[in-house]
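Hi R.,

Here's the chain you asked about this morning:
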Amino acid sequence: MFSNIHHEELVQFIITAKSQTYAAGGGASSSIVTALLTDSHQLEYQAGTLFYRDIYFGQAYFVGQETVYH
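And here is the predicted structure, written out as tokens:
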């Protein structure tokens, strides 16, 4: 069953997820996982039913994708 999430709850989750991963200096050790894509970096964070994944390439200049699953 799909349930809606309130905008403010999503915003707060994303802020927390970023502070626990990339914004925390490249990721807290518990958020760094084996990357799914070759030569990429992958950070993850979960709280309750929400899951955040950041996959990116590069260091100073980078490109990637952030997703939130519910």
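One quick note: The helical segments are 7-20.

Cheers,
M.
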